Please model this.
Amino acid sequence: MKTGKRDVDGNGTRTRTETGTDGARAAARNSVSTGLRDEPGQILHWNFFIGGHLSASVPVRLVERTPEGQLVWMETRTPMWCTALPRGTTHLRDIAPHERPAEGYPVIAGRWPMGSALFYQPTGAAHSVLWLFGRRQKFRGWYVNLERRVHHGDDIDIADHELDINVAPDRTWQWKDEESFAEKTGHPAYWTAEEARAIRTEGDRVARLAEAGTFPFDGSWCDFRPPPAWRTPPRPAVPRHPLL
Model:
């Protein structure tokens, strides 16, 4: 993903004047698959899994794709699919893996309940960085989601690693969900102690970028606005699989 000044072309699509590069990471796993279309505005499917079970499937729009990674836009209130949870349960992560049906939960129609966000998904990395936007598209800060990410055509499958980082607009940061991350460590549905150390190391590395104010925390994209022609994506077909 290139850093540098952004411009707007005649169609209202954001482009970049390239002044540098962070470099593509060498790891081939989890990379953005070659051969995909690179059309700004094309609809992709962000599929979010917790402990191997689908939690949400949300259509997003491609903003930019380079060898270094891709940017996608998720609009608040976008029609989506979400897990049909048992009565009295508010989130899939609160259900112990042994209490979940082996075939996965059914899904129901819903709408993305959080604010709009721009996702940076660096090639080969075990994290995404989100620019969070509130009312009137006001930038509210960054969110680092630690994850394992695999691309299947237009599907972006996310295995969530629970531990995340909140980064304020002034680039101060703090860990999120440390306690639940520790509780899940060692369970077969999640990650081993060794993998947990690698997950935290990944978070530490991204936190250092925030402290240094380097991309993606350099102030670029904080004023992003989707082109007016981008309508809210329709609800896609039922997700292809409830289990990762």
Summary: The two ends are 27 Å apart (CA to CA). Confidence is low (pLDDT under 50) at residues 2-35. The helical segments are 178-184, 193-212.
